[in-house]
Amino acid sequence: MRFLFAPIGILAGLVAGFAAQKGFERVWAAFEDGGAPEPEDREVSYPKLLAALAVEGAIFRLVKGMVDRGARVGFASVTGSWPGNDETGSA
What we know:
This protein is mainly α and 91 residues long. It has helices spanning 2-31, 46-79.
């Protein structure tokens, strides 16, 4: 069943990445005007860059995990088969 879930997982990952980026932009905008600092920005301080990267990473991981889980639950409810490790730890 994994091969049937692969395109769904890829699409869900793309949607999650887009949603996470938009979510991060909204969160960062609540604390500071302008875009988030990037590593290639010469004038950005290390604490500000560290904060931006940590928040962005946390949001991305949270959104990606929740979207992936939702896609798997939906797939399992339609097909009756869980796409991944089951309760016994086997694939």
